[in-house]
Amino acid sequence: MVIHFSRFGTFGSCFEFGKIFKIISDNLREYLTGWVVALLFGVVLGIVGTIAFTILIFIPCIGWILSLVLGAFLAVWPNLVIFHLFGQIESLQPVEVQ
Fold first, then answer.
1. How far apart, in Å, are the Cα atoms of 34 and each of 20, 52, 72, 85?
2. Predicted pLDDT at 95
3. What is the pTM of this model?
4. First to last CA, the chain
5. Separation CA 76–CA 72 (nearest Å)
6. CA distance linking residue 3 with residue 26, whole number of Å
7. What is the enclosing helix (H) or strand (E) of 18?
8. Residues 6+ apart with CB under 8 A from 41
9. CB 2 within 8 A of CB 86
10. Which of 17, 46, 68, 77 has its CA 20 to 30 A from that of 10?
């Protein structure tokens, strides 16, 4: 849905389910690969983040500040990676003129 919205730029394009499902079915392997990679990336990043937070929380003041910075980074960066991944999948689609 986000890919379809980014392609056409209209709110109504989010509800064109027929077109969205057709794009997914035409590129099912790429979409499944994207979702599996996103899931594995999230699990690995969650484990690494948990270990880092556990270590940093025991360092007074500086560790707490670093935890806040790391938390802000981990809140944004995974989404950027996942959106880029699905943007690469979108680039495989031919451009439609409306």
1. 16, 26, 24, 7
2. 66
3. 0.69
4. 17
5. 7
6. 14
7. helix 17-26
8. 78, 81, 82
9. yes
10. 77
